[in-house]
Amino acid sequence: MGEGLKVAVVGATGAVGNMMIKVLEERNFPVKQLKLLASKRSAGRKLQFRNSEIEVQELTESSFDDVELALFSAGASVSRKFAPIAASKGCVVVDNSSAFRMEPDVPLVVPEVNPYALKHHKKIIANPNCSTIQMVVALKPLQDAAGIKRIIVTTFQAVSGTGQKAIFELEEQVKAWVHGKQLEPKVYPHQIAFNCLPHIGSFLDNGYSEEEMKMVNETRKIFEDNSIQVSATTVRVPVFYGHSESINVELKNPLTPDDVRDLLEKAPGVRVIDDPGSFKYPLPLDVAGSDITFVGRIRKDISVDNGIAMWVVADNIRKGAATNAVQIAEILQKESLI
Q: For the whole model, what pTM was predicted?
């Protein structure tokens, strides 16, 4: 495959792993050799990369002997076991799970927000939660310009965030409904078709879900500011791709909605679509397949001083996972941090 790095994708057959392979190709990342790794049951499958088919191998402790960069998307338990093994062999790991995000010595990175955190990595780098990524991309310009005191966020998250089985479940439930058949939930505790579930991850003792507390803790770590107050409500909705978020932010210093639009129009990785009078605002159907974070419905939050309300939408499999990981890899490669 020419000059470049020896790269592995762990969890290659999953929704995010598949997208990682696609994004590596789309962005022409310098891959010298690509190794695709997954569980034993997925070994032997062949996946397309550039103009060749690559056979998926079973993930083992010796998988990283000749790998320089590994993109992990196989769940926290797999990452906890295999990422340190890969790192011990000199491989740099970009991990998409929650396993290492809150470890003090592991950078938690969104390239548009805190790329400088990569300079001191110790072979393992964490990709934030999908819903956190798009939120901090949209809020970073406001944090820099005025400071953030408090964030209230409600998410409307696509089923693809749960994985391939959830995509299939929504498809099957819609088909069953059309034909008047019983809709059986298997992936989720309730029917997801034509429904909203205020339940992502297990519920904790404080009444919040795991997903909600990820947004709280990860936002503070990425912005390096534990004084920011965050309250999140995360909701699973019957959408295939694209997470939407209603965000109310209380700033330390005033910004007008026009100020916010100007800041966001200049911000990296952001596109403003904000003309509600003409029915123009970001929609998950429209943003699927994009690597941009879209912002609209920018207005003053009339319930609080220095308040701004906005609507933020991004493709959760791409910018919320695969693309963010590849963007991290691009910085590592460019800055000779691998």
A: 0.97
